[in-house]
Amino acid sequence: MADTEPSATPVPAIDVGDLLQAADGGRPILLLDVRNEDEVRAWKLEARRPIDTVYVPYFDFIEDEIASVARVPAGRDVVVLCAQGGSSEMVAGLLNDAGVPARNVRGGMVAYGEYLQPAAIPLDAAEASRFALWQINRRGKGCLSYVVASNGEAVIVDPMKNIEWFEAFAAQHGLRVTRVLDTHIHADHVSGGPALSAKLGVPYSVSAGDGFELRQPVTPLDDGQVLRVGGTGGVTIDVRVMHTPGHTPGSTSYLVGGRYLLTGDTVFVGSVGRPDLGGHVVEWGRMLFTTLTERLAPLADEVLVLPAHYAGVHELGADGVVSGRLGDLRRTVPELQARSADEFIASVRAAVKDPPASYAEIIKVNLGVSSAPIDRITEWELGRNECAASAKRAAALR
Ligand SMILES: [Fe+2]
Known about the structure:
Layout: E1 13-14, H1 16-24, E2 29-33, H2 37-42, E3 52-55, H3 58-63, H4 65-70, E4 77-81, H5 86-97, E5 102-105, H6 108-114, E6 116-120, H7 125-128, E7 132-138, E8 143-150, E9 153-157, H8 163-172, E10 176-181, H9 193-200, E11 204-205, E12 226-229, E13 237-243, E14 252-256, E15 260-264, H10 281-295, E16 304-307, E17 324-325, H11 326-332, H12 341-351, H13 358-367, H14 374-380, H15 391-397
Parallel strand pairs: 1-5, 2-3, 2-4, 4-5, 9-10, 10-11, 15-16
Antiparallel strand pairs: 6-7, 7-8, 8-9, 12-13, 13-14, 14-15, 16-17
Helix pairs in contact: 10-12
Bound molecules: fe (ii) ion (FE2).
C-alpha cells in the first residue's frame, strides 16, 4: 500500500498541446509513462524530437511506492502519463509528496488522441493573396483535416468529431463555413462531417460508392465538378472534385487552386491507402491501381499531395506540415512502383495486417446506419490509424 497519504494540494498539470510544443522544441522533459506494458506497446506519445521516457507501471507505485519513486531520475522536469490522466495524477501527487517535482499530463493518452494542431500550408504570394489552406493535425492518431478559405468563406474537409474545435477555428479566422466535405467513409475515426454540416446548416458531401447504404443526407458531387469558395464578386478559389476510387469505392480527392491535392486515403506521403478494409481487396485494389496509374496521371509533378493520414512524426516536414510533391511520391512510394494491378494487389496483401475490429463499427456510424455513445467512440478511436497499405513498414519505422 501507499506509504504516503495523497497530498491535499492540487497536483500540477500540463495540457497535451503544451507538452507537445515543449517536446517538439527540444525541451529536456522526462516522460514517466505509468501505463501497462501492452498499452505502451500499442501506442506511444510521439513528438518531433525523441522524448526521454521511463516506464514504471502504476501498479508498481501501489505495490512499492518508495522503490518506484526511486526509479524516477532526480533533477528532471517530470511529466506523468497514463491512459486517461487519473492514475498519472495520483503518481504525480506521490512524486511531489516525496520531493520529486512532477506534473500530470491532463487527460492522458485519450487527450493526446483528441488533440488538434493547425498548421498553415505555405503558399506562394499570388496564392496567398487569394486563399488560405490549413492542415489540422490530430497528432495522436495521425489524422489530417483541412480548412480551405477565401474571402471570408471556408470549406472544411474531413473534420473530426470535435466539431466545436472547427467552429471555433473558423470564427477565430473570421470565416463563414459554407460546405463540409469528406474524402470518403472513414474507418479509423468517426467523421464530424454530418454533425458539423447539420449544425451550421450547410451542405455535406461524401460518396460511399456502390454497395453501401448511406443514410446520411448528402449533396452528391460529380467527378470534375468545381466548387467555388469565396464571396461573389470578390476573390475566390476553386476546389475541383476528382473521383479517386480504390481505398473505398467512393473515395474522392479535392484539388485546391490547381495545385494542392487533398487525397484522403488515396495517396499518402509514404504509402497508399489500403484497399482491403471492405473485404474486397482484389476488386478495390484494381480500382486503386487504376486511380493511381490513370486518374492521377494527368496531374503535374508539382502538385502537392495533402493526405488524410500519416504514419508517424518522421513524415512531418520542417514547416510542421505533412505533404509531398506528387513527382517525388511517384519516385519514392513503393506501391506507386507496381507495374501491374496483380503486382500492386500482391504487395498490398503482403504489407497489411488485419484492421482493428472497431473499424467495422466506425464505418457503420459514418454511413449513418448506426450510432454509438461518445465513450464507446472514444474507445474505438484509441491508437494510431492503420489506414496505410504499408502498415507493417510504417510500424517498423517507429
Ligand atoms: Fe480511410
